[in-house]
Amino acid sequence: MNIKHTDITTIIVLNKNKQHTKSLQIKTKHLNRLWHYGFGILAVVVCLIGGILYLKHQNENKEAEKKLLMAQLIKLKGAVAAPKADKGVSAQTYIQSIQLKLQQINEYLRKRGLKGFSTKGVGSSGAADGAKLSDKDVYLNYDEYLGRLVSAVGYTPMGYPRISSFTSFFGYRSDPFNTGSAEFHPGIDFKGQKGDEVKCTANGSVVFAGWYGGYGNCVRVAHGNNLETLYGHLSRIIVKVGQQVAVGEKVGEVGSTGHSTGTHLHYEVRKNGRPVNPVNFLTLNK
Ligand SMILES: [Zn+2]
């Protein structure tokens, strides 16, 4: 090669036998920049390869991330889908409803001064009477049963109109006003001081509130199922006829009005209009 710093450079190509085969004439300035061109091309190639490798790496990362997200999504779907299943939601709803009603029953009992009963065993046995029922049907059965129980307990006179000892029981006794003869006592008498609270023993509506012969100031409450309670000899009445009263609600105050020998509460339970022994309505076990 013969390179001269002239405007034009001649490049002579020789074969193995040093015989002249070809000669090229190029501008010298281009020849001088040949290294620059070479580096330029090399730089571009390096950049391209680098870029390709970088993009490939990025893509791999994204793929991995995508896989991870998909796995999490499937997991989440599973977690969300489970409660949507009929069994999951229904069972929870029915159980909650049942528990609510049992709490209500225990509340009724507590207000009457009685101990609530245990909720153990509800939902485990009982409804398994031959035919195989679905979980949902079992829950529905219990729910319906408890619904009736709530109503029955709420509207059945139970417990004490006031917490104190009896001074007189239901049945025949010697007449306190006429010694030597017997009289029928249609209720039970509770000890008390004038002004002590007298509480209704079940939900119901007031059918009488006022002076009632020998009973003096008297309140009668109808509870459905042909049951009625009567509170006599009151010093004060605080309810009116037609008023709805709830179990445990105050209806009046202890007194000694009417045919009475001393301050006490006369309490009656009437079934179909006839007095029955209130002792049978003092606890759940009767
Ligand atoms: Zn009495």
UniProtKB/TrEMBL annotation:
The chain crosses the membrane at residues 34-55. Residues 184-278 form the M23ase beta-sheet core domain. Keywords: Membrane, Signal, Transmembrane, Transmembrane helix. GO terms for molecular function: metalloendopeptidase activity. It comes from the Bacteria. PANTHER family: L-ALA--D-GLU ENDOPEPTIDASE, PEPTIDASE-RELATED. This is Peptidase M23.
